[in-house]
Amino acid sequence: DPSPIIAPSILAADFASLADEVRAIEGAADWVHVDVMDNHFVPNLTIGLPVVQSLRKATPMPFDVHLMITDPDRWAPGYAEAGAETVTFHAEACEDPVALAKTLRAAGARAGLAIDRDTPIEPYLELLPYVDMLLVMTIKAGFGGQKFMPEMLDKVRAARRRIGADGLTVRVEVDGGIAADTIAQAAEAGADAFVAGTAVYGADDPADAVRRLRSLVTR
Ligand code: DX5
Ligand code: ZN
What we know:
The chain contains eight helices and eight strands; from the N terminus they run E-H-E-H-E-H-E-H-E-E-H-E-H-E-H-H. Helix 3 runs parallel beside helix 4 (about 95-105). It starts with a strand and ends with a helix. The protein is α/β, with parallel strands linked by helices. The protein has helices at about 20-25, 50-55, 70-80, 95-105, 155-165, 185-190, 200, 205-215, and strands at about 5-10, 30-35, 65-70, 85-90, 110-115, 135, 170-175, 195. The protein has a single domain (about 5-215), classed as TIM Barrel. The protein binds D-xylitol-5-phosphate and zinc ion.
């Protein structure tokens, strides 16, 4: 099994000090989770490509870009070209997920497919061979600080079953309400990448919060 990934979300960080906020988790976290929202796919607005490009120069940490935007077919490749390690787009917004995943890989990134709270997993299981990661939202996308929804873990279990049965190497990431009291059940269901915003940046010591989360999913 690949080792678990802890990916703090800078959505819960101080946007006026992003470089420092990312440096605070260097050495402790695996990836930096970057939530891009366009006030259209979700009713919230965060950061976009210029900020990702600037931040890219400020840290060597891999970027796990989560695009909560309309028309990812058009905009996602720019994030791969900006040096994001993983670019995840939403199934609900994407015209041609297989083609987009291929484009992202050709641009040097890993491709992630995300499904929001109200989206069933079944229609997307057949896309698993074409992506590097599946992101299962454990809240409704749009805002940090929401309550973890354990019923979403059925999707994680279904994906993990298919990944195992078909011998695929696809990570399953969970995003939303991941904290010390929820991370173990997500791991138990088959998740191996964990996004945490509030649980990391709401803590007095973000690096320590990351280490604590990791200890809960490392056997
Ligand atoms: C929300 C974002 C999440 C958010 C999670 O739509 O995708 O990444 O930062 O925040 P917490 O960990 O506070 O639920
Ligand atoms: Zn996210």
